[in-house]
Specification:
Number of domains: 2
Number of strands: 14
CATH architecture of the largest domain: 3-Layer(aba) Sandwich
Strand content: 15-25%
Distance between the termini: 84 Å
Helix content: 40-55%
Largest sheet: 5 strands, parallel
Order of helices and strands: HHEHEHEHEEHEHEHEHEHEHHHEEEEH
Amino acid sequence: MAIRRILLSCILLPAGLLIGACSSKPIVGVILPSTGEASQYGESIESGARLAITEAREKGQLPPKFEVLWADSGSDPDTAVKIFRDQVENKGAKVILGGATSAEARALIPVINELQIICLSPSASAPGLTRLSKYFYRLYPSDEIEGQTAGKFMTDRLKAANVLLLAGNSEYASGIESEFRKEYVDHGKGSISARIELNDEGWEAGIRKALRAEPGAVYIVGYSDEIVRAIRVIRKTGYKGRIVTTSAFFISKAVKEAGEIADGVLFPLPPFDRNSEKEPVLSFVHHYMDAYQRAPDVFSAHGYDAMNLLLEILREAHPSVTPQLAKELHFGLTNFVGVTGPILFDDYGDVRHYPKMFIYKDGVVQGYEHYLEVKRKQIIQQVGDLLAN
């Protein structure tokens, strides 16, 4: 009966999808922004995905006849849609790793539903995306959770009564800002002292003017290039308060570009700590540094986990068709532990991961709670030394 249902589904499919759906060849389409405004994220994700393939090949764990199709979306949602169609309808892709940005993911969802092909996004984070398609999954926590984490941190830990809000003009920024306001203003009873869009004319002068009121903290919501530009302006004013931003900041190029001006900047991150001494993080960091001569960031970690996840379900799903692949994603991954933590999806396809606050201090990204504990021990040691003398 199972074989009959599979054969019948092949008969009922449009002619253009016959080869793609009924062939047993495990083909993964990868659609990432290698060029354009989101290229640094795409490049980082791709580096992690390629490392996962290399490791699987060296261990003899690639699915038989495995093939991967690499494509550049150019950071353009329409281009991503065209590539998606081509990879599925003409090249037989069984599953897609793509929708790196929220804009690309949102544009892809209608065609994902039409072609009924699973798409796993390593990084799209706009609230509600997974509710638009039962075939769309993501490894990155929703902006809803990140915005709430930042808002609660401002209230509970920083005790900031008011915040200067600096926002980029993107779906990513607006999604986080909305959830931050709910948590910080509506629930935490904090206030926004001023809001400045980082793409408006005169935004730099606006920041300098707003900082004269000495807000309790500054919250920068945007992509890495916007964040770095804003931090530069803030530092030049001599502002001594806390700067909090988004997880988009933690990408190797941005942190390197920011350099010393990023010292003390706080941001929420999914549960990936590259300083961990535990497996599988330890081996991943070592292999990544050997391959690329730099430390992995949170996006390369998600690219790595995304590809490993797809390789796992392609090894286990027989045949490699959407119903079987979906079954493996929901019920076959009970013991799958990635470098970003154990990976399980909720009923909508959202990963069950929750961000934690990190700080960039003295050239190192570390958990904020860990940082405070180290500082506490240092103070106790200093006091002890003074008393001993």
